[in-house]
Amino acid sequence: MRRLFISMLICLGCSGWGMAQEGSSAPSGLRSLLSGEDARNWSGVGQLHIADQIMCSGALIADDIVITAAHCVYDPDSHRRFDPDQIEFLADLRAGRPSAVRKGRYLAVIPQYNPDSGNRSQVESDVALLMLDRPIRSFSVTPFALGISPGPGENVGVVSYAHDRRESPALEETCAVEAREGRALILTCSVAAGSSGAPVLRIENGIATVVSVVSATGQFDNRQVAISTVLDGRMDLLLAEINAQPRAQGIGVNRLTPDSSRNGSGAKFLRP
């Protein structure tokens, strides 16, 4: 019988962000994104610094909205949610230099997320949206659209930071969905400390859409796997909560494609 044992990436994302993980050699499937050309399709990914103690990954889904893991925005000791202004987003951070830096302004978390609950329950609701204090309007930084979660046997990609590669992100362009367990995906992708909140991407015809968020690691059929949270049918409520907040003046232009639809939040959705 297949069994899944989960280790929350809170252990990876919320250990001291100045500490490197043991064994710093990157897995062979990862490609560092060092130049602007390397990162051209992935510039919406950035790094989150939280309360000067936590490092996580995240991705823009609108000019002023970042999607990440909910466990990143809770104090691992007190389990209290951090204030949004304690969170800093470094967009398109490469070689230690971000294209833009913004503070948080408002946080929305899936209502079912409970930092005191067990690992399985946390993973299935481990999504947060961070509204930024100002939109990022830069030709070098492009937000992602939201897509539909993949099924078992399909390929996905992940762009993430980690404690042993926190100066620049790395891309794993092809890894597989092994299974779906409730509202969690079991992936063969390589993740490490600091990868919490990284976008899981469906890549079709050269276009990447965010379909899930990295949450944890685990053992599945006696193999190390990554575990991510499914977004389907769960984002409208969070986006509505974000959209109800007053926006910063001069909000940037939404980037839309012919296949996308606009909603009030500025985030966009691509349908197959």
Summarize the structure.
The protein is mainly β.
How would you describe this structure to a colleague?
This protein has helices at 10-13, 119-123, 235-243; strands at residues 4-8, 31-32, 45-50, 54-62, 65-68, 87-91, 100-109, 128-132, 145-146, 155-160, 170-181, 184-187, 199-204, 207-220, 223-230, 260-262, 268-270. The protein is mainly β and 272 residues long. The strands form 3 sheets. It has a 6-stranded antiparallel barrel with strand order 10-11-12-15-14-13. It has a 6-stranded antiparallel beta barrel with strand order 3-4-5-8-7-6. A two-stranded antiparallel sheet has the order 16-17. The longest helix is centred in the C-terminal third of the chain and has 9 residues, at 235-243. The radius of gyration is 17 Å and the shape is globular.
In the sheet with the most strands, the strands line up as: 10-11-12-15-14-13
Order of helices and strands: EHEEEEEEHEEEEEEEEHEE
Distance between the ends: 34 Å
Give a count of the beta strands, DSSP E runs of length 2 or more: 17
Mean pLDDT across all residues, rounded? 82
Classify the secondary structure makeup into a structural class. mainly beta
Rounded to an integer in angstroms, the radius of gyration calculated over CA atoms is 17 Å
Sheet having the most strands: 6 strands, antiparallel, barrel
**Oligomer status:** single chain
Topology:
Blueprint: E1 4-8, H1 10-13, E2 31-32, E3 45-50, E4 54-62, E5 65-68, E6 87-91, E7 100-109, H2 119-123, E8 128-132, E9 145-146, E10 155-160, E11 170-181, E12 184-187, E13 199-204, E14 207-220, E15 223-230, H3 235-243, E16 260-262, E17 268-270
Parallel strand pairs: 9-14
Antiparallel strand pairs: 1-14, 2-11, 3-4, 3-6, 4-5, 5-8, 6-7, 7-8, 10-11, 10-13, 11-12, 12-15, 13-14, 14-15, 16-17
